[in-house]
Design a protein that fits this description.
This protein is an alpha/beta fold and 341 residues long. It has a domain at 192-338: Neutral Protease Domain 2 (Neutral Protease, domain 2, Orthogonal Bundle), CATH 1.10.390. Helices cover 44% and strands 7% of the residues. A six-stranded mixed beta sheet has the order 1-5-6-4-2-3, with helices on both faces. It has a two-stranded antiparallel sheet with strand order 7-8. Helix 1 (13-20) packs antiparallel against helix 2. The radius of gyration is 18 Å and the shape is globular. The protein starts with 7 loop residues before the first strand and ends with a helix. The protein binds zinc ion.
Length: 341
């Protein structure tokens, strides 16, 4: 269920709504895109006190520290299936989307465990549930507070391929869970600057997990979110950390604080902290998972639910001081300064 807790979608309502007006697409595709836009907008507008989210999550039972994946297939329907297609340790199911979700949630789990010593999204081995071919998320993927929901790209639409196979998308969504469990008070409120930070932290860790899997350093990485699900006719990705505002034809992400959009979509203003992360990782050099990832991860626990960009800057600098030395502090400070924060 999306309600009563908020969902964090990978594709923003504004992007879906812009594509729903695109002359390239037939009426059926445009209607599906509009339906998805409304679902994402509804979720975004649904302000629920973060403590309810924490309570909701606390009711799910931890499994004492092992990777525990469960994948369901909704076959295009909105109802939650009761029988899994594949569980932890099962051989390949032959269901391509389910096997992709199994692999990408596993790769995300492994990154958090191997590099940050975190056991699943809650830190206590929460089972990683996914539902593929979800009718609730056409042309989208989202974390609903308890599990990953993967929709399918509408045929002849702006998206292609498998959302479940896109590791940056999956790591992005699971990081929304990590954020909810790590920021004191139950997460970052999904509007204004704290909402943009919520989105940004998911993009940052999505990039780190993907770059680690591909063994790409900060120079060779593409710094794109979702390049594999974007129909190249309409753009190269959903978002670009290196070059916000230029990932697709109507991309409106700002890269600097002076261009902050008042009342804008959280996926729009996330361009500013995203670019700060890209610059920090580039200044630090090497691989994003060596220093930038651990710094941003540690900073999460220093934020508050209504954190501003200035507070995020202070949190990442404090995290850097705790983990590294002066040269790293300079690298992170310069990155935020460059985006005007
Ligand atoms: Zn998100």
């Amino acid at each position: 269920m999306c309600s009563p807790i908020r969902c964090c979608h990978i594709v923003s309502s504004s992007m879906l709504s812009k594509f729903s007006q695109h002359p390239d697409f037939d009426a059926k595709t445009r209607a599906a895109l509009m339906q998805s836009a409304i679902a994402a907008a509804f979720a975004r507008g649904e302000r629920v006190a973060s403590r309810f989210m924490a309570m909701e999550l606390a009711r799910t039972t931890p499994n004492n520290g092992k990777k525990d994946r469960i994948v369901y297939d909704a076959a295009g329907k909105s109802r939650q299936p009761s029988t899994p297609v594949r569980k932890e340790g099962d051989p390949k199911s032959g269901n391509a989307a389910a096997d992709a979700a199994y692999d990408s949630t596993g790769a995300t789990y492994d990154y958090y465990m191997d590099f940050l010593k975190r056991n699943s999204v809650d830190g206590h081995g929460l089972a990683l549930k996914s539902t593929v071919h979800s009718g609730k998320a056409p042309d989208n993927a989202f974390w609903d507070g308890k599990q990953m929901m993967f929709g399918d790209a509408t045929a002849t639409g702006p998206f292609v391929g498998s959302f479940a196979a896109a590791l940056d998308v999956v790591a992005h969504e699971l990081t929304h869970g990590v954020t909810q469990y790590t920021v004191p008070g139950g997460g970052l409120e999904y509007e204004d600057e704290s909402g943009a930070l919520n989105e940004s932290w998911s993009d940052c860790m999505g990039c780190v997990v993907k770059q680690n899997a591909l063994k790409q350093d900060v120079k060779t990485a593409d710094w794109l979110i979702g390049p594999t699900i974007m129909n190249p006719k309409y753009g190269k990705a959903l978002r670009s950390m290196k070059d916000p505002g230029h990932a697709w034809e109507q991309d409106d992400q700002p890269a600097v604080y002076s261009k902050y959009v008042q009342g804008g979509d959280v996926h729009t203003n996330s361009g500013i902290p995203n670019h700060a992360f890209y610059l920090a990782a580039s200044n630090l050099g090497g691989n994003s998972w060596d220093k930038a990832g651990p710094i941003w991860y540690k900073a999460l626990s220093l934020l508050t639910s209504r954190a501003t960009f200035a507070e995020a800057k202070a949190a990442t600098i404090a995290a850097t001081k705790a983990l590294y030395s002066d040269s790293e502090v300079e690298a992170v400070t310069a990155a935020w300064k460059a985006v005007g924060v």
